[in-house]
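Changelog entry: the Torsin record was regenerated in this release. Current contents:
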Amino acid sequence: MKVARIGLWVHVLLTVSVLVGAFDPFTTTVLVTVGATLGRTIYKYFQETCDAKWIAFNATGLKVDLDTKLFGQHLASRVVLKAVSGFMTNENPKKPLVLSLHGWTGTGKNFISKLIAENIYKEGMHSSYVHVFTSTLHFPHPSQIDAYKAQLQQWIKGNVTNCERSMFIFDEMDKMHPGLIDSIKPYLEYYDKIDGVSYRKSIFVFLSNAGGESIVQTALEFWKAGRSREDLELKDLETSLSLSVFNNNNSGFFRTNLIDKSLIDFFVPFLPLEYLHVVQCAMAEMKARRLEPDRDVADKVARDLVYFPKSERVFSVKGCKTIESKLDYYT
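Regenerated structure tokens:
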């Protein structure tokens, strides 16, 4: 459909360019103006812009994705759905939405960020308004922290100036230099505007392995007590999680003002995954590859992973992290 439309517009512009040379100067001016207008229309049609055509929240889509694609994370699903839905339907939020996602590797932190982006931006993670910062890639040298602070402020201000509905994802917060993230504190505050720019409609998502030990310990205690993981509530984890992250001197959140001043709206815990969840991940990946989901193959993949405690083999050490490569081996 897009190809046909492109062909039509090109034909129109070519026709205009031919006609330009055949008329007097006044008519030529009119035709050139028409051609320029058409050119801008084509550009706006295919170039992503900061408007409802390209940015529109799909609450139903996010709920369905969380229910059918994310496994073993009832808390994260519930918190993220309520937080994002409430924020995106509020026409006048008082501050940006700030989420901090915590848990061991392979539990779904990056994946849930992707689901949020896909249900807000037409281009999903490829949107010009979704920005991902990886600590070890973008901020590798401790000696340059002052330069990083200035660059980070400029990047965020420039992008929000371009589109107030911007989304910023900070990966590997546990590997970020302490003190760096405080440079963006003013943008997460309750200010109406800073230097003429409003940040209130932007979303900030932090991803971190920090706090994972605290989450795992609580999950283990529930399991040993014979209680279902679904009985775990946010109140069972949020306070200990925030304290654990705040006092971790190897984390980018160490003694940060973002936590001290309560600028993070939700600390979202990601629970360690069990065998059943790994099987579900494998089945979902087969479906994504347009293969017939095979439970026997999924079981082989799940059995290949390492679990802890060693004797009971309850939780997957790497969650669903290596599912794709394992499936390559078994299919």
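The radius of gyration is 24 Å.
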